[in-house]
Amino acid sequence: MLSQGIWARVAAAIAPHVSPEQLARLRAAHGVYAAAMQRLNEQRAALTAQAVAFQHGGAAAVAAVPPLSLSGEPLLEQLHLADAIELNMMRNRTAAIVHGWSMLRALGPTAAAALCVAAWPMFPLLRAVVAHLLLAEAA
Q1: Contact assessment for residue 132 and residue 9, using Cβ atoms and an 8 Å cutoff
Q2: pTM of the predicted model as reported, rounded to 2 decimal places
Q3: Distance between the two ends of the chain, CA-based, in angstroms?
Q4: CA 98 to CA 104: how far, in whole Å?
C-alpha cells in the first residue's frame, strides 16, 4: 500500500505551477464534490437502513412468492430498493469522474503536465493531491 506522503510530495512539486485563480477553482470544485458526496452518502445510509429492515422483515415475504413469479409486493419492493442502490452507486461514480475532470481543467495544461511528471510512475490520485494543495494554501 502506498504511503499518503507521496501525494503530499506531488502536491508540493506542482504547487509552483498552480496560480491563485486555479486554487480558487480547485476549492470551488472540491466544495461542489464534497456537497454531492454528502448527499449521496446520506441517501446510501437511508437505503442501507431500508435493506437491513427488509432483510429482517421482508425476506420471508419474498420467500413466500412462488418460484419464477415476478409478482408480489415484497418482491417489487426488493427490486425497487436494488434499483435505488444501483442508481446511488452510479451517481457516486459519475460525481467522482466529473470531479476528476473538473480538477484537471482547473489545473490547466502546465500544472497537469507537472502533476503527471511528479506522480510518475503512478497514476495521480487527484483528490488527494488537490486536498494537499488546499491544505497547504490554508496553512
Answers
A1: no
A2: 0.71
A3: 28
A4: 10
